[in-house]
Amino acid sequence: MAIAVTSLSKIAVLILLLQKPRHGYELMKDMREKFGYKVSAGQIYPFLSGLVRAKLVIVSKKGQRDKKVYTLTSAGSTFANKALHSFEELIELAIAKKLRQCAHCGCKVFGNSYSEKINGKKLHFCCGSCANAFKTIKRGI
Ligand SMILES: [Zn+2]
């Protein structure tokens, strides 16, 4: 089994198939509507055929027009979840430098954190409530 998930649009196909079985046209439509990817049949079908050959997806025919419906097999779901997981790790790496930890609750904050100068030290919080709770505890000690 050598299916390479080499692009975001392939990840998007796997995400859609994890949600529910879809036929080819529906996949292309949802790719466009949900993710903003304009993919052509020439891009999507070779990937789907590869998944079918690798027994990660099965094809069944449904409806009057015999539309091919693509469904992930259990091995396919495992594969899709793994691909998704490595993608998540990549995203985490990409944003790790931009994450700050709330000095009170420890949650990670992306983007603008709430910061306050406490005892001459600039501290970052996820929100004002955490900053207040932090100060209350400090005062209590
Ligand atoms: Zn917090």
Question: Can you tag this structure with a few keywords?
Answer:
single chain; 141 residues; alpha+beta; Arc Repressor Mutant, subunit A; Ribosomal Protein L24e, Chain: T; 2 domains; 3-stranded antiparallel β-sheet; two-stranded antiparallel ribbon; 21% strand; binds zinc ion
> What percent strand?
15-25%
The distinct bound ligands, ions and cofactors come out as:
zinc ion
Helix content: 40-55%
Radius of gyration: 23 Å
Could you say what the CATH topology of the largest domain is called?
Answer: Arc Repressor Mutant, subunit A
Q: How do the SSEs run, as a string of H and E?
A: HEHHEEHEEEEH
Largest sheet: 3 strands, antiparallel
What is the highest CATH level, the class of the largest domain? Mainly Alpha
Separate helix tally: 5
Structural class: alpha+beta
Instruction: Count the E strands.
Output: 7
- The CATH homologous superfamily of the largest domain is termed Winged helix-like DNA-binding domain superfamily/Winged helix DNA-binding domain
Stretches with pLDDT under 50, minimum 5 residues: none
Characterize the overall form: elongated
First and last CA, distance: 60 Å
Strand arrangement in the largest pleated sheet: 1-3-2
Which CATH-level-2 architecture of the largest domain? Orthogonal Bundle
